[in-house]
Amino acid sequence: MAAARGVLYVHSAQPALCPHIEWAVAGILGVPVDLTWTPQPAAPGALRAQAEWEGPAGVAAKITSSLMGWQRIRFEITEDPSQGSDGARHAYTPALGAFTATIGANGDIMIPEDRLRNVMLMAAQGRAVLEDELDKLLGKQWDEELESFRYAGEGAPVRWLHAAV
Description:
By secondary structure, the protein is α+β, with helices and mostly antiparallel strands. It is built from five helices and eight strands, in the order E-H-E-E-H-E-E-E-E-H-H-H-E.
């Protein structure tokens, strides 16, 4: 399987969840994980952490599946494109749920043709507003909700996580 790398941003989590998040990520990467948790100014009482990771392609999706069940967490995880694999961006917020997008080599969100055709058909039939549906495909709502959490994390420490091979 191709080697991949990316970044995990835990934008906000209750302190009691932090060790569980580390255990979940460690279980997927196969190595101990000890994140540096700092206060999240955008959510008083919550903590934030971020880590760069390396591992097999598909790790970001596995981490997303593991973390999104806890509901009282906000996070994003990216996976850079690697040989034979597209990149990915996953985001989760309690209010919106999960968002996943394929990321091309240049960093742009790549929307599959069938999804574009579907929203065009919905708009043509008057069942949706095209611009609103395109915003959903691009993750605009997640970006808007997470922006204050991203800004609050600027300058936070970053740790590297390497998967067991």
